[in-house]
Structures are given as structure tokens and as C-alpha cells.
Amino acid sequence: MAERLTTAAAATLRASATAAAPSARRAARASSRAFFPNSSASAARARVGLRAAPPSRLPQRAMAVRCAAVGAAVSDAAQLKASREDIRELLRTTYCHPILVRLGWHDAGTYDKNIEEWPQRGGANGSLRFDVELKHGANAGLVNALKLIQPIKDKYPSITYADLFQLASATAIEEAGGPKIPMKYGRVDVTGPEQCPPEGKLPDAGPSSPADHLREVFYRMGLDDKDIVVLSGAHTLGRSRPERSGWGKPETKYTKNGPGAPGGQSWTAEWLKFDNSYFTEIKEKRDQDLLVLPTDAALFEDPGFKVYAEKYAADQDAFFKDYAEAHAKLSNLGAKFNPPQGFSLDD
């Protein structure tokens, strides 16, 4: 799903977490298959002032081992609610909204509606914390997101990774000016890397038939055309870097000065602000400094998608309403809840 809902319809944004560049071949694979084709964010350099625990400097494999050892069986509601304040502080100090959206989407976006068994069906189960899944091409750089929020997990051990990933994603949208997401929590974590989904579940940025590809991926998750288009609107956040994804310019007038690590090409001028400008910019195509991927362009070219894209370009309130519903739906895909009905942090 790159710092933004994958380029696919969804492509994250990473405004402040930077990934070590993979090899050229892996980099191209890495960001072309993801909700947000590898956006940028300088996580590795970010200093986060969480009182309880310093940011982890563990290598990726060691971190995955540690994550497996400290997973919680079920989330404590009080700890999860308290962790939301730490996430807000993290966002204020590192501008990492895009990469946290991407983290939540990529954990959930592996869901297959045709498989009933948990966790074989994939989805929001915290499996993305394991090294084997972090190494999937579409997840390039997401180890930086894990490093950013691991201190929060250390501070609040009685919460699950599955809930933490989805809480961070929803909070990032809300703190960027987006709608309140009607989230529920209580997701159960998988317990080991053998429960991770196979590679290849996430969308590509430049398939030969963009509209057909988007439908193939999102229909597998049980989502529809409206979900595809509205979730793509999260591309209003974040940037894509050509050295990682093969897409975009090295820098533009909107990205050359950051915030976070400078450079990359954004979909919108204010790429840390959540609004409907993604749709208006694609429709008007008047600024060559803004990115339009094949899967973005398809939203105004395919008749089934266009009706929704036109609606959201004209009506931000309608976009916010439908986006909040679709984001919540995505965050629940494949999850097993304890208690079964889940719980809210806002009751």
C-alpha cells in the first residue's frame, strides 16, 4: 500500500524516517509495490524524546527477535490510550506521518478474504514486526517506522503490535488535519515469523493495466471501487524518492527543504497536510513538480473510479466522510479481536 496508500490506490508517506537504500533492483521493487511507494522520512536521524525508553539502535534482525519476545497477548485499554499521546509527540517532533500510515496499511493490506483461517488469511495482526516480512520489497524502509515506535511499545508493554500499528496510522491521519477515524482495538498479535504472509500481496505503482491491477489487489481484500479511490486520497501525504522506488524526481520546489530529509517528489504541494488536494491536482495536472503515478492517473481515466474521484475533487467533506469509513475498514481486515467486539479508546 509508499508513504502513501500505495500507489496503488492507496500507496506512506514518510516525512521523517529515512531508510537505508536497498540495491537498485530491490529498491525499484520495494517502492513500486506498496500502498505508498517509498515516501521519505528521516527516522534514522530523528531524536524522539520519550521519557521511558530511548530509540532502539538494534539492527533489523535483532529488533525482530526482540519484538517477538515482548509481544502482548491482548492490549490493555489504558496503556493503549496513553500511548496515543506518545504517538502524537512523535509526530510533532519527527514529521513521520506518512511512514506511520504506511506501516498500518502494509500490516493490514495482506488480507485475503478467500482464506478463513487466522492468521493464514493475513491482515492486521502485527506480523510486519518480523524480519522476514520487513524484507518484502514493498516494505522497504519500514524498519525505520518500527524503530520510531519501538520505544513506545517498550514503554507500554501491555499492548499488541497489531493495535499499535493501526493506532499510529489513524493518529497520523488525524494529526495531519484529516478526519477522526472510527477505530476499534483489541487486535491479537501473531506469535512468530512463520505466521507472516507470503510476499506479493500489496499493489504495484506502475502495472501494465493500472485499473485492473488495483481491482485485483483490493477486491481480494473485500474492498470495492469507492474504497480504492478514497484510500488513494491518502497520497495527499508524503513523497516518493526515485533512488528507492524508481518513481519521482530527486527533489522539487516543495521538497528541497524538507521537513525531515529533503528531496523526493510529492503528490501535493503541502504534503504533510491531509485534504482533498490529491484529487484536485491529478484532475488539473497543472504542476509538473507534483507526482502522478499510473495508478493515480487511472482514477480519472477508468469510468468506475472516475465518478468517485470527481466527487472527492469537488467535495472535501464527502472525501473525509468516506475516507474515515474506508480507513477503519482497512484497519480491521483479517484481525482477530479480544474481546471479539473490540473496544474504543473514546468511550
TrEMBL record:
Residues 240-265 are annotated as: Disordered. Pfam families: peroxidase (PF00141). Its EC number is 1.11.1.11. GO terms for molecular function: heme binding; L-ascorbate peroxidase activity; metal ion binding. Keywords: Calcium, Chloroplast, Heme, Hydrogen peroxide, Iron, Metal-binding, Oxidoreductase, Peroxidase, Plastid, Potassium, Transit peptide. It comes from the Eukaryota. The keyword Transmembrane helix does not apply. Residues 240-254 have a biased composition (Basic and acidic residues). Residues 100-347 form the Plant heme peroxidase family profile domain. It catalyses: L-ascorbate + H2O2 = L-dehydroascorbate + 2 H2O. Belongs to the peroxidase family. Ascorbate peroxidase subfamily. This is L-ascorbate peroxidase. The lineage of its organism: Eukaryota, Viridiplantae, Streptophyta, Embryophyta, Tracheophyta.
